[in-house]
Amino acid sequence: MKVPAKDSKYSVNLKIFKLHNYSIAPKICGGSDKKSPSPTNGTAPAVLTKRNSWRASWKFSAAKQQQKQQLADSTQQPEYECDAELPADKRNHLDSNNDSSTATDNRSQHWADALERVSTSSNVECENGRTAQQLSGELDEFMSMPWFGMDIGGTLTKLVYFEPKDITPDEQDQEAEILRNIRRYLTKNSAYGKTGHRDTHLQMDNVEIRKRRGSLHFIRFQTTDMSNFLLLAKQKGMAELVTTVCATGGGAFKFENEFRQQVNMKLAKFDELDTLIKGILFAEVQNPTECYFYENARDIMKSEKRAFDFSKPYPFILVNVGSGVSILAVYGPDNYKRVSGTSLGGGTFLGLCCLLTGCNSFEEAIQLATKGDNRKVDKLVRDIYGGDYDRFGLTGDLVASSFGQMHIKDKRSSVSREDLANATLVTITNNIGSIARMCALNEKMDKVVFVGNFLRVNPISMKLLAYAMEFWSNGTLKALFLEHEGYFGALGCLLQFNGEIAAALNETAETSQQTQKSETTADTFSNTINSTTSPHSNNTNNSDS
Ligand SMILES: Nc1ncnc2c1ncn2[C@@H]1O[C@H](COP(=O)(O)OP(=O)(O)OP(=O)(O)O)[C@@H](O)[C@H]1O
Ligand SMILES: CC(C)(CO)[C@@H](O)C(=O)NCCC(=O)O
């Protein structure tokens, strides 16, 4: 991975702390020793139920157990090929979990099943009516380049593209021109269309995936720009390539038909939280400096980014700050639950900031926040007490009430756009920190990993979160951050194992059959409510917000 020499974004944003030339002790976690009220927007814990349909999709070959085992023994496991070459400690890291060895066995078994099935039973009918031959074709199609993983989120779409670097001259001769053009287009540019960007500083080189060596490119664009993206993909000839793309995020469901109709692309859909964890584990193994923390977190003026050894990660709290926030308790690679969430996330920060300051982009909002002072907007403990509230350890500098001065006309007229942006950022960050801390306490975990694009170019929030975890836990909680911030869902998608892909394709077929059925039902009973369940309905959260 290209590691930036000195992250300029940090030096720029440090200005805020220079401007606030005081010992910053913003109130990150509401209430401290006081009994904190429950977060208004928290969600009820939802225990993960693993999706089982892929197991069912292969079950007809269970009768040939012995034969399968031989195949399994002689077959490598694509997803873990790179693992086989890893140093022992890294391998242990993937295997150290209570579930992981079982998961690996299952995977090799199912990969063996898949191979056996396509090689020996090409006309056996699958559950959804497709033959093994068809399924084999779909797997081949998936295996053919280009390889993408896509995370279509509420605000940003993230695309991870694998560029093969081990192309032989023969392969090069045979490579379709369209494919070559797509590869060149993606890897030679860093801006695409109106909102597309390649984060060149995050590029991972010399990565091995499914026995191919190459580079991973990280691209993002606004989800509102999806129709332009599809148009561009069509112009570049994607429709003629007939590819299947692994996709996750809400948009994988929302835009599925558009992908099919406009660029002839099938989406193999995966759950966003499953892929998030897979992506994180892969990035950590690939990049020794993926994970970092803030040293001297208690003194925001002095706190500095340092590498953290995340090779033995479990258990940990994972806070994904996207448009909204999901909070997971992670016990192992295939073992987690979504413990909470809040609708007050990155989307809220951006939305409120645009409303309050008239800014037009996340970058602009962060720039404004960097120059502003939340103390002119918020009501601090000292604005109420005239000093500290000693009895419960609340120093005068703490925010007692976010935006608490804005009901006063004079104060309102003296605040700047910068102050409002800063107060918005601090408010949203504090709230996330508060909920994350309560989750860590509940789950008795001491590592809290923050990811998601809200943290992009946003050291103010990272430092506040690091401060919050450290200060309010008396040093027992540690906030951790990851370099590839918002790309883990897309990365995890790209890495999906072939057995899982086959299952996702099956689910797609099942869903379209269900949809057709429900459309017919809706025609017949036009007054009844369509209650078709989502293919992942056994794996969703119980959001109550
Ligand atoms: N260039 C950008 N444009 C818009 N938002 C950005 C940008 N860079 C960072 N952000 C922040 O990142 C957030 C989106 O993060 P992310 O991409 O992780 O979530 P998402 O997948 O879009 O949302 P969700 O997971 O809730 O569907 C935005 O709400 C905003 O706060
Ligand atoms: C809906 C998702 C999961 C989409 O990524 C995310 O935006 C989220 O977790 N929102 C918060 C929902 C809640 O728990 O209140």
From TrEMBL:
Listed GO CC annotations: cytosol; nucleus
CDD domains: ASKHA_NBD_PanK-II_Pank1-like
GO biological process: one example: coenzyme A biosynthetic process
Biased composition (Polar residues): 97-106
Pfam families: Fumble (PF03630)
Single GO term (MF): ATP binding
Keyword line: Kinase, Transferase
Amino acid composition bias (Basic and acidic residues), ranges on this chain: 87-96
Region annotation (Disordered) ranges: 86-109, 509-545
Domain of life: Eukaryota
NCBIfam families in the record: panK_eukar (TIGR00555)
Record protein name field: Pantothenate kinase 3 isoform X1
Gene: LOC105227904
